[in-house]
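Structure tokens please, single chain.
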Amino acid sequence: MGAHDFTTSARGKNAREAYRSACEDARSEYGNDPYNGTIATTNGVVELPAERFAGIPAKRRYEILHAIATGDTPKLRGKAKDVFDQLRRQYGEAEKWGSCYALRIRVGTYAFSGWAAS
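Here you go.
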């Protein structure tokens, strides 16, 4: 079986609660198959520090989150590039069957990205 990248979002009081909600939604929509290609095939969540993203537009935050999780190299400049480079070194790429990454977008809303088994 293979893997593909995903990015999704969910609401919750914290990243773990939002992660559980996203997994429940994915299982409800796509079933319990361990190869359903969704966040439900990951094994936990690692929250990236939102304060490091201060001053970076939301679209760039999603791009950085996805690139760190998947190993992509986005075209970034300035602070966005510095944040990406620092976090890539610190966290590395997400792994199939491993944890995905989360980033608080605003109070109560989290974005997730990683590799899903498919």
